[in-house]
Amino acid sequence: MKPFPLAQVPALEIDRVSHRYGARVALNNVSLTVRPSSFNVLLGLNGAGKSTLFSLITRLYAIRSGQIRIFGHDVARDPGAALSKLGVVFQSRALDIDISVRQNLMYHAALHGIASKRAKELIAQVLDRVAMTDRALDRVGNLSIGQMRRIEIARALLHQPRLLLLDEPTVGLDIKARADILDHVRRLSMVEGIGVLWATHLIDEAGAGDDVVVLHKGNILAHGGLGEVVGKSGASDLRDAFNRLTGAADQEEREPAG
Ligand SMILES: Nc1ncnc2c1ncn2[C@@H]1O[C@H](COP(=O)(O)OP(=O)(O)OP(=O)(O)O)[C@@H](O)[C@H]1O
């Protein structure tokens, strides 16, 4: 990973975070950093711990071990300041399908305490960012799944967050819609300087300029630029690197040292 300029506070810092459900360890001493203006692909198979990590970052679950900071604000101690900088697109559907796109966004703006006049300006901006301006008055239920995803992204951007988390945002989308959404969010990170953490099990969603985090059974196995992760594991491409890293970890689990 590129070093931080001294003045640049990380968008997200996860510092030695662990989480258990009863006896099951879901996250084991996880540390990772997301820089502003960077696109980070959090790669993990089912059960890797991606959703658990997102639940801790968003305070759905209490952080029992370790620390999480958003632009330097500790999520546990200073949640208001930390969460005001955060936008989230969860796996589950977040829109009311019986009302229009604009009504959904007005409702979300009201939840964030944004006054109606300002909300209208922000809604125009976010719809433009996801190329959905012409659908503002449509009932959400009439949109395709890909278009709904774009509106969910617009909704997450409404309060102008500087860090955006997306949990498996392309589930259920066809190849074209997937590529479009990836492209939109990559552009947001580049053009607007938003730090993005994009959780997926789809290896081909990681692109050449991205940072990659490999999470497997609650452990971070690699974190860095895509080229660096591939190079360090002696692999030919990211798929090969992922298979080598997770295969070696599984082997170690079967044959613990000592
Ligand atoms: N509420 C819960 N109670 C008990 N175990 C849980 C609970 N939620 C998750 N787990 C376990 O914690 C581990 C991590 O799950 P998590 O949902 O965070 O993974 P994930 O990477 O998001 O997977 P997926 O892609 O399938 O959603 C798994 O072993 C899972 O079975």
From TrEMBL:
Q: Which InterPro entries does the UniProt record give?
A: AAA+_ATPase, ABC_transporter-like_ATP-bd, ABC_transporter_ATP-binding, ABC_transprt_ATP-bd_su_PQQ, P-loop_NTPase
The ABC transporter domain extends over 12-242
Which SUPFAM superfamilies has this protein been placed in?
P-loop containing nucleoside triphosphate hydrolases (SSF52540)
- What does the UniProt keyword field contain? ATP-binding, Nodulation, Nucleotide-binding, Transport
Q: Which GO terms describe its molecular function?
A: ATP binding; ATP hydrolysis activity
Family, per the entry?
Answer: Belongs to the ABC transporter superfamily.
Q: Which NCBIfam families match?
A: PQQ_ABC_ATP (TIGR03864)
**What does the function comment of this entry state?**
Involved in beta-(1-->2)glucan export. Transmembrane domains (TMD) form a pore in the inner membrane and the ATP-binding domain (NBD) is responsible for energy generation.
Q: What is this protein called?
A: ABC-2 type transport system ATP-binding protein
Q: What is the lineage of its organism?
A: Bacteria, Pseudomonadati, Pseudomonadota, Alphaproteobacteria, Hyphomicrobiales
